[in-house]
Design brief:
Two copies of one chain form a homodimer. Chain A has helices at 2-8, 15-26, 34-43, 50-63, 103-115, 134-137, and strands spanning 32-33, 66-69, 77-80, 87-91, 97-100, 119-130. Chain A has 141 residues and is an alpha+beta fold. A three-stranded antiparallel beta sheet of chain A has the order 1-3-2. In chain A, strands 5-4-6 form a three-stranded mixed beta sheet, covered by helices on one side. In chain A, a hairpin with a 7-residue loop joins strand 2 (66-69) and strand 3 (77-80). At the A-B interface, helix 5 and strand 6 of A face helix 5 and strand 6 of B. Strand 6 of chain A pairs antiparallel with strand 6 (119-130) of chain B. Chain A binds a DNA duplex (25 and 25 nucleotides) through residues 11-17, 33-35, 47-52, 54-56, 58, 74-76.
DNA sequence: ATGTATGCAAAACATTTGCACCTGG
DNA sequence: CCAGGTGCAAATGTTTTGCATACAT
């Protein structure tokens, strides 16, 4: 129950926060921009200001509930943090996003950071490419 | 001689372009934002508009002369492309940037993309952490 | 009640664009 | 000369902020 998640991180349980958390948890495509969330809320007749969405997402990020990704293309996207670290493969044509995890890559990153005397706080690996799905090739998107 | 680089990619040799290319090639810290370049030009008494810098950098990127990186923190940074691909390790405290290359990571990325049916066009790996330099620890920056 | 949260509008940024003027080949 | 380049100001798109009002506890 997400109410608990909110209380646990010290945030009051309010309607905007619950709705936004719900959308992030249930989205089919879990990588959403603030604007995406705004549109989804409008579609479900919820009147929540865009400014509130940005504020809430930033609070969620600080609280560790969501991750913010700065992929190419202007808008940041947010994704619920389910505790399983992963990186992303993004199709530059259709926008499809595939998550992946590679233990060897992770290990090598650690090795490199150690060698340079860095204590890792975060890292992001994003591979851009063209996927092979039919709909993408046809440009149907 | 950078005049040749410019001609080679089909750009007229103009003062702004030469100056910007020169700055990118000679900078001690080769990862510069458009604003950084603007400031450097101002310091050397060159009156070049910020809009021109953005236009020129975008042209350079298209021509393959420079790479644009979207690290965290709003501004994109540009780096001259010397043909040697590498990734970045960035200190979140003092901003220090270390470049690295790891053949195993590269190979693993290719393996993952292949497995998902993606043809890689680009990729970016950035590790954020805290470096161990004395000046950084002391917060002198 | 009271400290927080929200909504709105305005501000703040980074980046792009329109347009009149200038310049390199 | 003339296509292309530049400077300036204005436009854009995203994200943040100030402030008065509304809400959770």
């Amino acid at each position: 129950m997400e109410n608990q998640d909110l209380r646990r991180v010290g945030l009051k349980v309010t309607l905007p926060r619950m709705k936004i958390l719900e959308i992030l948890e249930e989205a089919v495509q879990p990588h959403l921009s603030a604007e995406d969330i705004y549109r989804i809320l409008l579609d479900s007749k919820e009147e929540i200001g865009l400014a509130t969405i940005y504020r809430v997402l930033t609070q969620f990020e600080t609280a560790g509930l969501v991750e913010r990704h700065n992929f190419e293309g202007g808008q940041a996207v947010f994704e619920i943090d389910r505790g399983k670290h992963h990186d992303h493969l993004i199709c530059v044509r259709c926008g499809k996003i595939v998550e992946f995890y590679d233990a060897e890559i992770e290990a090598n990153q650690q090795k490199i950071a150690d060698a340079e005397g860095f204590k890792i706080t975060d890292h992001s690996l994003t591979i851009y490419g063209e996927c092979s799905s039919e709909s993408c090739k046809e440009g149907i998107k």
